[in-house]
């Protein structure tokens, strides 16, 4: 039977449910305004699902995550797990795992004893050792058990932190920018590994990041936040092809906008304009414009050219490395509709 804490709706949903959540920080000095860091957010994370919260610095991602963890009080709204409100449960009774930007490993323990931390007192020693070995395999650190953590690289330390967070089989894993302290190449590789580890272990997770590539790599669904609000939630594919507003589109990486029919706006992804005389496909388009080359930077296997397109602004075009026009060159560009998204205005 449904109680006041449980509704038939919840029983069907399971997982995490955040309802109309408000997180507010009271002012440090009298007379200052309170900061509303999370302003009425509702979000679900279904069992086994990985959801990323994506948004610029200060938009309230960490505050939301910390409220779910029980590290920040909830000013209004509700946080529910498996159909029950947990806002009054202390952190340690929620059964959630936490992982932060700096792994916060215990420097005087070796790798195995870091990973075993959450298992101590919960299972016999032999079982604990087996679980540690299993987790080190899962995160790609086979054979690292006796290494002092101080001798590990930043990426290896984050793998240990992940293994430690997963060891007690948390009901929900909360990750706050776990890869942000690492350099870009390593971050990209670890994001792929993280996705695989979460999938293999069937872990339900909420993952905070300001990096859209990382969110798209790791998560089944992504929630885009801005100024304390949840602006849009969807699969990476859905968000990219159907951003709800120019604000969301810009945050996902769209660079410029064109007026469309009526209240429709056309968002332009990097590569939306092709240099007409250089690239195949450009000739098919009937939308040609004048542009001036502003600069170029070499990337893996191609060159990104910065173009100032008449009536549009500065955008990025991709050209083969041996066909890069000099800065100042006047060129014609053609629009590739596949690299655009339509945003429908308010009806
Ligand atoms: N303990 C606090 N006291 C007062 N204000 C806070 C506190 N923590 C966060 N804030 C404010 O709340 C807002 C949201 O911060 P939060 O850390 O949740 O954002 P974020 O999106 O995670 O940002 P970042 O990516 O920079 O960590 C910001 O304006 C921040 O200054």
From TrEMBL:
It is an enzyme of class 7 (translocase). GO terms for molecular function: ABC-type quaternary ammonium compound transporting activity; ATP binding; ATP hydrolysis activity. SMART domains: AAA. Residues 16-252 form the ABC transporter domain. Coiled coil: none annotated. The keyword ATP-binding applies. Its EC number is 7.6.2.9. The keyword Cell membrane does not apply. Keywords: ATP-binding, Nucleotide-binding, Transport. Gene3D superfamilies: P-loop containing nucleotide triphosphate hydrolases. This is ABC-type quaternary amine transporter. The lineage of its organism: Bacteria, Bacillati, Actinomycetota, Actinomycetes, Micrococcales.
């Amino acid at each position: 039977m449904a109680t006041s804490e449980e509704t038939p709706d919840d029983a069907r949903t399971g997982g995490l449910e955040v309802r109309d959540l408000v997180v507010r920080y009271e002012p440090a000095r009298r007379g200052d305004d309170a900061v509303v860091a999370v302003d009425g957010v509702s979000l679900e994370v279904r069992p086994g699902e990985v959801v990323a919260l994506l948004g610029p610095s200060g938009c309230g991602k960490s505050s939301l995550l910390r409220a779910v963890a029980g590290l920040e009080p909830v000013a209004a709204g509700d946080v529910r797990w498996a159909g029950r409100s947990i806002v009054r449960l202390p952190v340690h009774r929620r059964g959630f795992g936490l992982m932060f930007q700096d792994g916060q490993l215990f420097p005087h323990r070796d790798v195995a004893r870091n990973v075993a931390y959450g298992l101590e007192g919960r299972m016999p020693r032999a079982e604990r050792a087996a679980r540690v070995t299993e987790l080190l395999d899962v995160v790609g650190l086979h054979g690292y058990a006796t290494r002092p953590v101080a001798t590990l690289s930043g990426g290896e330390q984050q793998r240990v932190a992940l293994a430690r967070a997963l060891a007690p089989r948390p009901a929900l894993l909360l990750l706050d920018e776990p890869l942000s302290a690492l350099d870009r190449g390593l971050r990209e590789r670890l994001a792929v590994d993280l996705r695989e580890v979460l999938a293999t272990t069937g872990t339900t997770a909420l993952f905070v990041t300001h990096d859209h590539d990382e969110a798209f790599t790791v998560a089944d669904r992504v929630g885009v936040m801005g100024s304390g609000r949840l602006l849009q939630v969807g699969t990476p594919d859905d968000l990219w092809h159907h951003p709800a507003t120019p604000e969301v589109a810009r945050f996902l990486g769209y660079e410029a906008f064109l007026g469309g029919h009526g209240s429709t706006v056309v968002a332009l992804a990097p590569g939306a304009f092709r240099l007409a005389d250089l690239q195949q496909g450009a000739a098919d388009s009937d939308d040609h414009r004048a542009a001036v080359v502003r600069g170029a930077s070499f990337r893996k296997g191609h060159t990104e050219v910065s173009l100032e397109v008449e009536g549009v602004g500065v955008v990025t075009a991709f050209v083969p490395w041996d066909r890069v026009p000099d800065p100042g060159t006047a060129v014609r560009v053609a629009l590739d509709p596949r690299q655009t998204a339509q945003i429908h205005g308010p009806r």
